[in-house]
Amino acid sequence: MLLREILEANREFVQRWEQEREARQAGKLPAKKLAIFSCMDTRLVEMLEPALGLKRGEAKVIKNAGTILTEDVVRSLAVAIYLLGVEEVVVIAHLDCGMAKPDADRMRQAMLARGVKPEDLEGVDLAAWLQGFGEDYHGHVREVVAGLRNHPLLPKDIPYHGLLFCPDTGHLELVVDGYKE
């Protein structure tokens, strides 16, 4: 049922998009030469970019569960920087993040209930795999920014900033000013 709704919404979207195409032109390169690394939380959809004053085509946006620094994030940022002209990176974590304290036991039970074989979970430390960061949101932002700044495959000559976002109000708090560090 949901798939039909999605396809119908897409049909209507494409019709509107075609009518407004000229006003919405955007290139493959980020116009503001900015990359954002953020969480995939649904509360940020249609809120985060406008709260930053950004429009379509102005920034590359990379998301994952919890704004957790992984090699895939580094790969995406490296492409954005070296191939797409990004000159600044902003890490944005948010308050009330579900990945602050992920429940590994609940995850395990849900996985088993959905058909994951118990033997496939043997030896998997789900708590470590989920990579929760506790309630220290500021520390988490600083850690991710430091990880990017110190990664051997990322350049040292661009600013890496860190912000904390409130998904209820849209307020941003500066945690790391990449111009000063």
UniProtKB/TrEMBL annotation:
It holds the Pfam family Pro_CA. The keyword Electron transport does not apply. Zn(2+) binds at residues 39, 41, 94, 97. It comes from the Bacteria. SUPFAM superfamilies: beta-carbonic anhydrase, cab. It comes from Carboxydocella sporoproducens DSM 16521. SMART domains: Pro_CA. Its EC number is 4.2.1.1. Gene3D superfamilies: Carbonic anhydrase. Signal peptide: none annotated. It is an enzyme of class 4 (lyase). This is carbonic anhydrase. It catalyses: hydrogencarbonate + H(+) = CO2 + H2O. The keyword Metal-binding applies. One of its GO terms (molecular function) is zinc ion binding. Keywords: Metal-binding, Zinc. InterPro entries: Carbonic_anhydrase (IPR001765), Carbonic_anhydrase_sf (IPR036874). Its cofactor is Zn(2+). Belongs to the beta-class carbonic anhydrase family. Binds 1 zinc ion per subunit.
